[in-house]
Write a structure and sequence with these properties.
By secondary structure, this protein is α+β, with helices and mostly antiparallel strands. The chain is built from 9 helices and 21 strands. The chain folds into 2 domains: 3-221, 3-Layer(aba) Sandwich (Rossmann fold); 236-361, OB fold (Dihydrolipoamide Acetyltransferase, E2P), CATH 2.40.50. The protein has helices at residues 37-45, 93-103, 110-120, 135-147, 165-181, 193-199, 217-221, 227-230, 331-337; strands at 3-11, 14-22, 26-30, 52-57, 60-64, 69-70, 78-81, 153-157, 186-190, 202-207, 210-216, 236-246, 251-256, 259-264, 273-279, 283-286, 297-308, 313-320, 323-330, 344-349, 359-361.
Length: 365
């Protein structure tokens, strides 16, 4: 495991009491505001010393209250990206990037600089001052500066929270490339489900200072039990897909394990591996294959679980091939259809229901 965390800490009336382990890749600490996510990432960084616990990164112990170990912040070799870029305003982008190595006592490395610049698309920004950058550009520079400090892990505390929708859409592809190409594990704080679905390989769900669930992203996002934390509107699952073809009619065909998914033209070459987020509210269920219907996507599925809330709704977990989906329907519909675990039916999805921002690069290059 890249990261092992066990800690207890009291902040006024709020108490952290949790433990989790995270593999390589992008581990997202997910939960509502006030659940303790930032406190955890600050404890890992060394910006907050827990009352008790143990933190280890890549097998190296950074904090152990029982053994009296607390490695200083500057010796933890962790790159931290905050909500704001926090660039030095009097330095150019190039100088901000180079500073990262100097502050760690590292010598110049033009090859490393070139790799990071190419990875984050910073070539045209190098001679600019921070004041001349957009919010998305400044965050890309901040990420590059963190990478050039030669960290064993990147820590990102809601790095897109201060950006508008357009800037978020601009920077997400770079974060996906970072996940695939940088080779550095990332601990990422977010309460935005769209970001989690695009980026996470592992999810740690938090509530009230405690870990409620943890596991691989695909399984976690399709777990009906997590809907309480996600919220009904954001409930949805992630499918792994590969681009099969692009039709002249403006529709792309994507291969998923349960069949073929037809979506409005996807901006990715044939053969590209993608992740596609399907919202539960956009999935309909039918006990017979629908005929003479405008929806292009009809997948045979098996019902795995039904979660009934206090209101009129039901979240149904179904399996399509190797993938999991969620459907949000009414209790009346679930009863009328006779849905039960182990039963079979068909999941119906409108092609236009999937937003371009819910389609991202797959985990493999």
């Amino acid at each position: 495991m890249s990261l092992s965390v066990s800690l207890r800490h009291r902040l006024g009336d709020f108490a952290l009491d949790l433990a989790f382990e995270a593999p390589d890749g992008v581990t997202v600490l997910f939960g509502r505001s006030g659940s303790g996510k930032t406190s955890v990432i600050n404890a890992v960084a060394g910006l907050m010393q827990p009352d008790a616990g143990r933190i280890a990164v890549a097998g190296r112990v950074l904090f152990d209250s029982a053994a009296g170990v607390s490695v200083p912040v500057h010796r933890r070799r962790l790159g931290y990206v905050f909500q704001e870029g926090r660039l030095f305003p009097h330095l150019t982008v190039r100088q901000n990037l180079i500073y990262a190595r100097r502050v760690q006592g590292l010598g110049p490395d033009n090859a490393a600089l070139d790799r990071v610049v190419a990875l984050l698309g910073l070539e045209s920004l190098l001679d600019r001052q921070p004041a001349a950058l957009s919010g998305g550009e400044a965050q890309r520079v901040a990420i590059g500066r963190a990478l050039l400090s030669d960290p064993v892990m990147l820590l990102m505390d809601e790095p897109l929270a201060a950006l508008d929708g357009a800037r978020k859409a601009e920077i997400l592809p770079y974060l996906e490339r970072l996940r695939r190409e940088a080779g550095v594990p990332i601990l990422y704080v977010s309460h935005n489900m769209a970001e989690v679905a695009r980026l996470a390989t592992h999810v740690v769900a938090m509530e009230g200072g405690r870990v409620t669930q943890a596991g691989p992203a695909e399984a976690m996002l399709a777990d009906p039990g997590l809907v309480r934390v996600m919220g009904l509107r954001d409930a949805g699952a992630v499918l792994q897909a590969r681009v099969l073809r692009h039709g002249e009619d403006g529709v792309s065909d994507l291969q998923v394990s349960g069949g073929v998914l037809c979506l409005p033209l996807v901006d990715a070459p044939v053969g590209t591996d993608l992740r596609v987020r399907i919202l539960a509210q956009d999935v309909m269920l039918a006990t017979e294959r629908p005929r003479n219907i405008s929806a292009l996507n009809i997948l045979p599925v098996t019902v795995l679980a039904l979660r009934r809330g206090d209101g009129p709704g039901v979240i149904v977990q179904v399996q399509a091939g190797d993938d999991l989906l969620l459907a949000r329907i009414t209790r009346r519909s679930a009863d009328a259809l006779g849905l039960r675990p182990g039963g079979t039916c068909f999941a119906v999805l409108k092609s236009v229901a999937v937003a371009p921002t819910d389609i991202g690069l797959g985990l493999q290059s």
